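Problem 12. The chain below contains 366 residues. Write out its predicted structure in token notation.
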Amino acid sequence: MNDFQAIADRVEIEALRGEFTDAAMMRDRPRLASLFTPDGALRMPDIPAEQVGREEIRAGGERLQSQWDFFVQTTHPGTILLDGDTATGRAYIQELARTLDGRQGLNYAVYHDRYQRTAEGWKFAERVYEVRYLDTSPLAGTAPHAARGSGTDPEDATATPAPAASFADPASAERLERVAAALRAGGFAAEILDDAAAARARVKDLVPEGASVLTGASETLRLSGIDEDINAGGRYDAIRPRVLAIDRATGADEIRRLVAGPEFVVNSVAAVTETGSLVLASGSGSQLPANAGGAAHAVWIVGAQKVVPDLSTALRRVEEHALPLENARAQAAYGMPSAVNRLLILNAEPHPGRGTVLLLREAIGY
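Solution.
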């Protein structure tokens, strides 16, 4: 190997390591997975976790980042030892992170790497992550959510938050596929359907005749006809008509029991993130227990315009887009405003198969 080739190889491998950190910071897990050979491995014995192959690396990363409030990784150059079409090396890492459940910390670590020259350039054959120092004491700083971009596109690193108008635009096919993959990685079943008519037919497949079903107060269900199918079609043991027939002053306990544990809950959400989280908002909170886990099965129908990059953007969508529209509806229907008094965030499904998300290619509802 001549000196020029060795220099070029070292530059490309160093760029590969930088690309890894950039993909992690930008939450671009498909790009990160593409940096490995098809049978490449990412091993993290201190966590512990081991992912072999690009699909496992992508899915495992999406599960991890769905738990983040914020994450910062800095890579420092290390060694590179060339050996023809293979190489070994080390990179030195500093990380700051806080998860949505409050876990946080600072660590210093080493990546022990094996590299492989391929037709697409140098790739990771293996990265082994070794933690050398860990400090889990509370971090003094915060993530400036209101001032940062979505974090899903390299060009978005200094972007301002998306305008509220964009919350009505349908997501692209690529983004829907990314959402579906992240949901599946978190234990949800996820399907991408063309439109509300397809969702209406699919709900009939998923919910057996005679099942007890609670529907959420959802414009998506109303506009699609699913609400009418369930609550007025006679096919199911519909909970909502039964609740409306009970005197709220004397039957409050009965109402709570009925809505908390049906066989099925069918609903929509205020937002779904590209990292695989579902966000539901409610004024009273009455429908949230069934969605959270009280119902044996759940089906959520989600219009394409509800896709957002991350949880911070999802909360903005609730406040800036969904609430004003629901407030106008509530004023017209009930003569009183709406409010976001309760929020439910589903980051994963601990009982795989319980929850099914039907992602639509069209926009419907709020």
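Discussion. The two ends are 61 Å apart (CA to CA). Students who got a different answer should revisit the alignment rule from Section 12.3.
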